[in-house]
TrEMBL record:
Keyword ATP-binding: yes
Name listed for the protein in its UniProt record: RNA helicase
Pfam families referenced in this protein's UniProt entry, alphabetically: AAA_11, AAA_12, MOV-10_beta-barrel, zf-met
UniProt feature, compositional bias: Basic and acidic residues: 996-1005
Enzyme Commission number(s): 3.6.4.13
GO BP terms: regulatory ncRNA-mediated gene silencing
GO molecular function: 5'-3' RNA helicase activity; ATP binding; hydrolase activity; RNA binding; zinc ion binding
SUPFAM superfamilies, A to Z: beta-beta-alpha zinc fingers, P-loop containing nucleoside triphosphate hydrolases
């Protein structure tokens, strides 16, 4: 319905950036929100905010289209879908998807206009004193006061607010001048300018704005403008704002009043802002999977699906309908409580272990399915090439999502019968497209035909984990080891002297102790942990241990696993230096591309030619040959292949898991629960202080799926690094990566200050004395910048143009520096949001393409000579401040630890200190940098010598300061109106939806 915008008509202005005065406007009576388009309205109806309000109606609904009341949510859904309702909606020219109106009176409820919600009568007396109510009441008062201050009044008219626009750094440093004019429009009035000031002056802060001329004491003359000059000058980049407040006195009426104007400026690159600006205003993505999958025509799977001769079938492992119903609860909190009460065992022990983790896997799978909906393509085209149909997949090159050979898509022609889909199996994956094969009944293709495409989750990795959990292997000494399970080490004489293959290990006591302990473990000992903080050489240590086992115990058979192919390839490559292709086998899943394998490992693999095709894929040799290998290396998920083809339990004397902290416990258990027997020794290597596995479900995360097997063991007394040293655990302490200043802070916060900086001085101290360092001996820079976090189109991921520009400037400084030569591939840029990574790559395209830009997860296990971190978030709205949403992934100790420990010689962090300092960990780090002279940009607004409050309530301090500013403004304004204020639409708050957009997809074979 095309009508005049109600906000424009009522208030003279509309907050919607798309508003042109006449547009498709839809009002949600339930939430009191105008939506400026049909798509906005549909997105709002699907948002969690709306659904929560719907749930709060107590089962009473009122339809404004039919003027009818409906009882019960299910009845409401049926009513909206009914023919009578749809006919009435069509006759009135409105959408049938109307929101229910709020009944004037709800039984047992009182409506609070300030909080915009129904409050139970029993809680109403105390509600006005609640923190939530008082905060929103104060915010409403502030908005009202601010709107009143910005109104022209008493016949005095001011020019609009002063926006200095986007200024280059050189221009901002020189300074710029703008003029604000004041004019009296009433001939007989007599008004005096009493005071001209900046709001920052009341708070005692520093401002880049200054009043260079004032007219205090001047009497305004009718139609004769009075000018006030405002100067802007700063050496810093970022966004600046202030408020000009002018106090007037009407001498005839003997009243004083205030008129205020906003001041703002952006210091940065005009070209950058033009290049990186949002491509479209942000609006939440609509969910579109309402249409059922009633009839699915099966596709043609790739030949590689049957290339491995399995003799044990994978279980279907389907979740129960009751669990799916519980997970579909509107509220995440309700779903979490339901799962805990009904589906999880009260006690987790060896007998309930499998049931517990199977439930968590189904919970995670449910969330993964929902997250895949974000990638559905609603207007796709297919290109036909013989038997294959090529489908372009946005984000494929970045593995968002990750697509492997054998994955499935569902495809439906536009205009097809509802519920009728064709399944397409992926036969090959290219950089930006995949090749699908459908059933022969798939016809009607043309270049003009459009399709709806749904991504379907590949359940095989999950089914392999379920298969392992279903086995009867459940010994306490492996699942819940106690000190009584720790066996003493065997005597050395039976082994002989240990001469390390890697001579450096002989000079590193913790590494040598770990190798010795693994070598001397008695068969069937409890798992042994190699606790390897950043840069301490845990992979080198376990590879040395494997080599020593094969040297001193030739009958050893080793299964070496890791969560990723890249980590498994590192193990295999280091073993290949001493083991031949008849001793070492690198087991790959058939979905792995042949060209993704390092050259030195090609001879350690086995390939089979695909039937009817002129190409091969990875497979396994016959069982007698496979059993002959001394070491088999594979991913945790592919560790199910030996079990599936019939390798007997107990064949492997040792099972190693590298990067064990990054795998879920069920992943690690694939190899252990299917291959180990009572005499198998298990070795875990990793760092529980760094990132754990990527878990997409908030429910599964809270229930423990994010805690790795390694972390769970090391949280017990049995694996205390002090008391268990050499018996159950060894903590490596020699760091060969980072400069002492870079290592110092994470060392104290996460590793009990045990780490020693032992890196090559020519590498780690290369930037000491660099002329761009604020402190010449301290190779850490925190660059303070106040930017703006933006979103665009349907992506909830954030980006910050001001920080992108600053990242590029530092890379240019490094590239052009003649004092220290730095190659692009020696620089890494870490950002917590995918959208920021995309913008940075765009800015560096064609200039510095070899600079790796990625998330914290993508950098775990990696290192660079120089690391630049862009923290992105820079919210200025401290009144409605929410630490969780504003800091996002930044406020996570493990992500922080991984991010700041990737650098060898130089660490640069770019961010808004006013946001970051709300988190106690970040505040401590900022204090550390500032006190050591590494600060650049505007200084901190707090005392960096004060002890940090670890309770983490700095957001409350910011709120209190903001409230103080509100109260001061209100006191400075004598006239306050009490008109209702339309505050606009807030975006949906689905925690998992927003967060998971920035979580990478793990590539599980």
């Amino acid at each position: 319905m095309v009508i005049i915008c109600p906000q424009l008509e009522a208030h003279g202005a509309c907050t919607n950036p798309l508003c042109t005065g006449y547009h498709d406007v839809h009002l949600c009576d339930l939430c009191g929100i105008f939506c400026a388009s049909t798509s906005y309205y549909e997105a709002h109806l699907a948002s969690k905010k709306h659904r929560r309000k719907l749930a709060g109606l107590g089962g009473q609904y009122h339809c404004t289209i039919c003027s009818a009341s409906v009882s019960g949510r299910k009845s409401w859904v049926q009513h909206v879908q009914g023919k009578r309702h749809c006919r009435n909606a069509k006759n009135k020219g409105v959408l049938p998807e109307v929101a229910p109106a709020i009944p004037e009176v709800l039984p047992g409820k009182v409506f609070c206009g300030v909080c915009d919600k129904q409050v139970p009568e029993g809680l109403w007396p105390s509600h006005p004193q609640s923190l939530e109510h008082r905060r929103k009441e104060g915010y409403t008062a502030f908005k009202t006061a601010l709107e009143e201050a910005e109104k022209d009044k008493h016949g005095i008219v001011l020019s609009k607010g002063l926006d200095f626009g986007i200024m280059e750094n050189t221009d901002a440093a020189r300074g710029a001048l703008q003029t604000l004019t004041i004019e009296s429009t009433v001939p007989s009035s007599r008004v005096i300018i009493k005071k001209v000031s900046l709001s920052s002056s009341f708070a005692g802060g520093q401002s880049p704005f200054s009043i260079t001329t004032t007219a205090e004491g001047a009497v305004l003359t009718y139609r004769r403008p009075t000018a006030i000059d405002i100067r802007f000058s700063t050496p810093h980049s970022g966004r600046m704002d202030d408020r000009l407040e002018i106090l007037f006195e009407d001498t005839a009426l003997r009243v004083t009043f205030v008129i205020a104007r906003a001041l703002k400026a952006i210091v940065g690159s005009q070209a950058d802002h033009e290049l990186l600006k949002p491509i479209a205003p942000f609006q939440p993505r609509r969910r579109t999977r309402a249409q059922p999958e009633a009839q699915v025509v099966s596709g043609v799977p790739p030949p590689s699906k049957n290339i491995i001769p399995y003799i044990i079938n994978l279980p279907r492992a389907q979740p129960s309908e009751s669990l799916l119903a519980a997970l579909s609860e509107t509220s995440t909190g309700k779903a979490l409580d339901h799962v805990k009460r009904v589906f999880l065992p009260k006690v987790i022990d060896s007998s309930t272990y499998s049931r517990y983790f199977k439930t968590l896997l189904w919970t995670e799978e449910y969330r993964m399915e929902r997250d895949l909906e974000h990638y559905d393509i609603h207007d796709a085209q297919l290109e036909r090439h013989g038997l294959y149909y090529h489908l372009p997949v946005p984000g494929l090159a970045e593995k968002r999502p990750s697509v492997l050979i054998g994955d499935r898509f569902l495809v439906q022609k536009h205009g097809a019968v509802e519920g009728h889909w064709y399944e397409g199996h992926v036969h090959f994956v290219r950089q930006a497209s995949v090749g699908l094969r459908f059933d022969r009944s798939f016809h009607g293709w043309s270049q003009q035909q459009r399709y709806t495409v749904r991504f379907k989750l590949n359940r095989i990795p999950m089914r392999r984990q379920h298969q392992a959990l279903d086995t009867a292997f459940a010994f306490d000494k492996f699942l819940f080891p106690r000190k009584a399970h720790i066996l003493p080490l065997a005597s050395r004489p039976g082994v002989g002297p240990i001469v390390p293959f890697n001579s450096l290990i002989a000079t590193n006591p913790p590494q040598l102790q770990a190798v010795t302990s693994i070598l001397l473990q008695q068969p069937g000992s409890a798992p042994f942990a190699v606790f390897g903080p950043p840069g301490t050489g845990k992979t080198i240590t376990i590879v040395e241990a494997m080599k020593q086992l094969l040297k001193h115990k030739p009958n050893s058979r080793i299964l070496a696993t890791a969560p990723s192919n890249s980590a498994a390839d590192i193990i295999a490559s280091r073993l290949a230096s001493t083991l031949g292709p008849d001793e070492l086998f690198r087991l790959y899943a058939p979905s792995r591309h042949l060209d993704q394998v390092p050259d030195e490992l090609q001879s350690c693999t086995h390939k089979k030619r695909l039937e009817g095709e002129d190409k091969s894929c990875f497979s396994v040799p016959p069982i007698p040959i496979l059993k002959h290998f001394k070491v088999i290396v594979c991913t945790c998920v592919s560790a199910s292949i030996p079990y599936g083809i019939g390798i007997p339990r107990g064949h492997f004397t040792h099972i190693f898991v590298d990067e064990a902290g990054q795998a879920t416990e069920p992943e690690v258990m694939i190899g252990i629960k299917t291959m180990a027997d009572n005499a198998t020794n298990i070795v875990l290597a990793g760092d529980p202080k760094q990132l754990g596995p990527i878990i997409r479900s908030n429910i599964a995360r809270q229930l423990g799926l994010e805690q790795s097997y390694l972390e769970r063991l090391m949280s017990t007394d049995t694996y205390d690094p002090q008391s268990g040293h050499g018996l159950s655990v060894v903590k490596l302490v020699k760091n060969f990566r980072s400069h002492p200043a870079i290592l110092k802070f994470p060392n104290e916060r996460f590793y009990a200050n045990d780490l020693e900086s032992c890196g090559n001085k020519n590498v780690i101290r290369a930037f000491e004395g660099w002329n761009k360092l604020p402190s010449k001996k301290f190779p850490i820079i925190f660059h303070s910048i106040s930017g703006k976090d933006d979103r665009e189109a349907t992506s909830p991921s954030f980006f910050n143009i001001d920080e992108v520009t600053q990242v590029r400037k530092y890379i240019q400084l490094l590239r052009d520096d003649r004092q220290i030569r730095v190659a692009h591939n020696e620089i890494g840029v870490i950002a917590p949001y995918h959208a920021q990574c995309v913008k940075i790559r765009k800015m560096l395209s064609g200039v510095a393409d070899e600079v790796k830009v990625g998330s914290v997860e993508e950098f775990q296990g990696q290192e660079r000579r120089v690391i630049i971190i862009s923290t992105v978030r820079s919210s200025r709205d401290f009144v409605e401040f929410d630490l969780k949403y504003t800091l996002g992934f930044v406020a996570n100790p493990r992500r922080f630890n991984v991010a700041v420990t990737r650098a060898k010689a130089l660490l640069i962090v770019i961010g808004d200190p006013n946001v970051l300092s709300l988190d106690p960990l970040w505040r401590s780090f900022l204090n550390y940098v500032h006190l050591n002279g590494g600060w650049a940009g505007p200084g901190p607004t707090w005392d960096t010598t004060e002890t940090v409050d670890e309770s983490g309530e700095y957001d409350q301090h910011i709120r209190a300061a903001a409230m103080t500013d509100m109260n001061l403004l209100a006191r400075r304004i004598e006239e306050v109106v009490t008109d209702n204020v339309q505050t606009g639409m807030a975006s949906g708050d689905d925690d998992d939806d927003d967060a998971n957009v920035d979580r990478p997809w793990r590539e599980l074979e």
